[in-house]
Amino acid sequence: MPRGEEPGVWAVIERQTGRFLGWVALPVEAGAGRLGYRFFRAFWGHGYATEAARAVMADAFERLGAASVAADTMTVNLASRRLMERLGMRYARTFFADFPEALPGSEKGDVEYVLTREAWQALRAERLSFVRATPADAARLAAHERRVADPRLYGPPLDHDACAREIAHNVFYFVEVDGALVATAAWKRREDGSAYLSNIAVHPDFRRCGVGRAAALFLLAEAKGCARVDLVTHPDNAAAMALYGSLGFAVESRKEDHFGDGEPRVVMVKCDRGVA
């Protein structure tokens, strides 16, 4: 167990409460990363480990240049194995470690899972599909809203009727991986020919693995030819601000209580200088 002084060890803190949930580690040496994590039992089954692991894996591949990331667990630890599979990792081998004290199930050995850079890149792009939504999909959107909602950064989740209106008034897509809803993306063309990116909302389990960027690029491709593309986001949403900035958006203005929820928003604009 890490003491917190080693490189590649991160504390996992719940944003809303500041509670310490556990830790995740992914040191990288000679291009090889090894993922580890430990959470308090009270926080199992809430997606925290998946979200934290995705974040440090993205950091390992993008910033640290890892060629592969491996992780291991007891063969009988099915929950941990499912987590590794959700991360896109694939079974590599079974081995038998020499522990001082045998644990229940240790006679079945440990398993190692591995994800290569190439496989990670493929997971980020090639498995995504964009499915046009209709107002009849309002219940599905409402369920997604409840999963992704952060009342301060994103505002309260939309109810069924509001979801139906949102779909009807925008070009609205469900972003899926193997049929599972991982994000939503929407835009609309205004009468003046400008475009408004009205929605990019990624499921917590799929954040920091390129889904938001893929969704933004998809919408920008659809809005190609518009002289102006704009969106609004919360100024404290650092991940969104960084993503949009990397795609050429710049802050145009700040509006207090923009959606009537007491929170500020910034308007970010991307201009296509090639369009008259």
Provide a descriptive summary of the structure in words.
The chain has 7 helices and 15 strands. It has 276 residues and is of the alpha+beta class. The chain has a 7-stranded mixed sheet, with helices on both faces. The protein has a 5-stranded mixed sheet with strand order 3-4-6-8-7. Helix 6 (211-222) links the parallel strand 12 and strand 13 (228-233). Helix 4 (138-148) crosses helix 5 (160-168). The longest helix has 15 residues, at 48-62. It is elongated, with a radius of gyration of 21 Å.
Record keyword descriptors for this entry.
276 residues, alpha+beta, 27% helix
Give a short synopsis of this structure.
With about 280 residues, this protein is α+β, with helices and mostly antiparallel strands.
Task: Describe the secondary-structure layout.
Blueprint: E1 9-13, E2 20-25, E3 28-29, E4 32-34, E5 36-39, H1 48-62, E6 68-74, H2 78-86, E7 90-95, E8 110-116, H3 117-125, E9 128-132, H4 138-148, H5 160-168, E10 171-177, E11 180-189, E12 195-202, H6 211-222, E13 228-233, H7 238-246, E14 250-255, E15 265-271
Parallel strand pairs: 4-6, 12-13
Antiparallel strand pairs: 1-2, 2-5, 3-4, 6-8, 7-8, 9-10, 10-11, 11-12, 13-15, 14-15
